[in-house]
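Q: Can I see a sequence and its folded structure?
A: Here is a first one.
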Amino acid sequence: MSTVDPPGSNETLRHRAGRYIAQPTGYRAFYPAPLPPQPLPRLEGELQILLSHADRALGRLDGSIQTLPNPDLFVFMYVRKEAVLSSQIEGTQSSLQDLLAAEAHILAPDRPRDVDEVVNYVAAMNYGLHRLQELPVSVRLIREIHQRLLQGVRGIRLTPGELRVSQNWIGPGGCTLREATYVPPPPHEVPLALGALETFLHADSTLPQLIQIGLAHAQFETIHPFLDGNGRVGRLLITFLLCQREILVKPVLYLSHFFKQHRVEYYERLQAVRDNGDWEGWLAFFLRGVTSVSREATETARRVLALREDHRARVTIGLGRAAGNGHKVLEHLYRRPIVSVSDVQELTGTTYTAANNLVSRLVELSVLVETTGYRRNRLFRYQAYIEMFGGPSDTAEGAAT
């Protein structure tokens, strides 16, 4: 694990992210200093190289998405992949397959109970992306997103959309405030800290955009303004800032993949900012994540394009006069990769028998895979496409509890 040396004396650095202050009841809470850090992060040496790599990787990703025939279909799966991974970091067990099944209204008996939380994440992201057209990233937008994220799920009792009015803390299950790994600022400090973060996001700055976004994510997690859902909202914040600042035209950077793979280091880097003022170490980690995930997403875009061309050729050659309806189904699968014969019948406007025959031929062409094993009410997956986003192996192994 490489490190980046920060500037200045140890004492100056230790407090540039904020200070721990003893509270009347005996525990210590962290009071974050406003952004940007003082002294500013030193963007030279390794950190400068990492920033260059991240900028280049993001540029290539953005360009590759714009070459796709219909980028929004590609985005559909990326939003869901991010929803699954970000939720798994917080302890959900639902996979991408579970989410797609839930959205297809498949009520399987073994469906994870927490899949609704992932469905909410998708809704919150889509709402936020639409809202950005009229409202910039702000405390107001953050609260609206939080309300949609927790609506009707396990966090409903924890005041969705409302800033906390009691003290929260982070640590092992069952630990007390005094035993906590980290205690965020007291509730009366939260509006002030969030207001300062919003000011930073809207202010003119000489810091590179990716550095600003990395600082903002860490600061939000440090403030921890809600009783639940802070991690998920904080990771959504990254996506919203990338899109609002037009660094990406589409939300196709799912950093939760990198954060989940390096979950322990993710939390350690955030804590090192609070304890030691190590903004450089966090930013280096963040930029490595941006580069890694951007490169992976670019490769996935290339593979999706190749898959689409291959399957379009199979449909054209293999279906003859039914190729027109076959192409309709194929394009639909990029938006809804699980279908029934009735779905295909409605999509193509044919008889049930004709739709059933079309589905059977798509199975023969290895475009669709029958997954239920039933004689009636069968369901078919666009498995090759789902697997490009980690479908079958997309489990919650290693998720936080």
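Q: Show me another, different protein.
A: A second, unrelated one:
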Amino acid sequence: MSLEAVLKTVGSHFLSLSERMFVYGPQGKLVLRNLEEHWFSHCVTMPHYNVFPCDTIADTLQQLRSNSMDMLPFALVTLGTSKSVWNESLLLVDKIPSHRIAKINVFVDASDSKSLLYKKQRERKVWWRKLAQHPSRFVFAEAKKMRNLDVTEIEAQFPFGNIIVETITHYPGIRKLYPQIENNKDNVMDVHMIEHIASMDWGCLALFCDSHMLDKSIRAYIHPKLCPYKITFHIEKQKNETDSDIEDLNRFVLYLNNMLRTRGISTILTNTEQIVNTEQMCLIPYVVSVDKTSLKNGVVHVKNRSTTLSEAVHITDLVKYISLRSS
């Protein structure tokens, strides 16, 4: 299957390549945002060392040194657009002129740089694998030298070719980035830098392709953390229901919808007749079903789209239930 065929299956409401540009549909933009937020949480919020936002590395280093905030190890984070060429072998005609990247530069003592490099390599590969439906698809490419630097690439393997999603580079000497200051006896050669750059655009493409090539089924799945919406609702109509009963159930769904949204869980409302199409198109992992009994005892049924199993959950536990399964 070619890349173009996979993209056609994915659908333009998620991602397409128009004139060799990444073009996201409504659901695709939400997936991209969720991927960036998950990356930020893992690479910026969670590390044991300090991570500082950065526009220009040299200027930020100077500011940190002047305020004595450059205690090793520490890192700088940059979110932006790169014009470096990635995955050019996949595009036989034109090149993608730019793509969105998330970059971390970790400054570390030379004695600890190798152990940190190997730790980052393992950590970043595992991070991608945890998001994939077929984890073994994400592997290390063959190590190579670029400008006398050791570069490791993480790639996703497909029948149509391999997609590089991240590069990890070890910089053994950073004198130009970390200039000496007069009367400063610090040995700047003892400071090394580990840089890892993830392409959000190419990463999204790889995860979309992975979700649609797991088997021959027409159904696709992505990790709940990345899904554009976590929940949609289904009203189970019963016989002898009055218009008043339907109105009560609609108000109950609106109550649940607002409760989940105020707790940071994304939902989407749809007509009952469109529930199957919406569930498939938006890759929604959970469907909450309500009926007249739910109004009396507060129990709803949550169906897992990937397993097709349904569990009874009280509405007071619904937020916790979904949060635990979407993390």
